[in-house]
Write a structure and sequence with these properties.
single chain, mainly beta, 7-stranded mixed beta sheet, 3-stranded antiparallel beta sheet, 10 strands
């Protein structure tokens, strides 16, 4: 079993995408993702990778952009999902970090809240974003 960490951004109804586009983005969220990925490879799609261009990656071992990154993720990797269905790899997830925008946006793709079964909320943190007054980070673990 691979042991993976996932990062997903959701709006109040669990929406993640609308018309194949992210609902929002925030530099403070990207900084949190990089900080929480210290010492790991961080995998994401080419679409998501563009957000991190020009950012200091700190001690992230590597940022790998590949549109099939979920199948290439290895034990210990962190993955940032935007538009990918986590269900296929969820059995390998040891930690899930949800970033909640605390707003409602139109969406046509949603995070399946049923995936939270078997996980427990370890901690919650609210922080100011660059585009949102308050973003809530929920960290779940097995």
């Amino acid at each position: 079993m691979r042991k993976m960490k996932l990062f997903i951004c959701v709006e109040d109804n669990g929406g993640t995408m609308f018309n194949r586009r992210r609902l929002s983005m925030d530099s403070a969220v990207r900084e949190k993702i990089l900080e929480a990925s210290r010492g790991r490879r961080l995998l994401m799609s080419h679409y998501s990778r563009k957000q991190f261009d020009g950012m200091e990656t700190g001690s992230v071992t590597e940022i790998l952009a590949d549109d099939d990154f979920l199948s290439k993720a290895q034990s210990g990797d962190a993955c940032f999902l935007e538009g990918q269905d986590p269900a296929a790899v969820f059995g390998d997830v040891t930690e899930l970090v949800l970033f909640r925008w605390n707003r409602r946006y139109p969406a046509d793709q949603y995070f399946d809240k049923g995936l939270l079964k078997g996980l427990s909320l370890k901690r919650t943190e609210e922080f100011p974003g660059s585009s949102h007054e308050t973003i809530t980070m929920e960290v779940y673990g097995r």
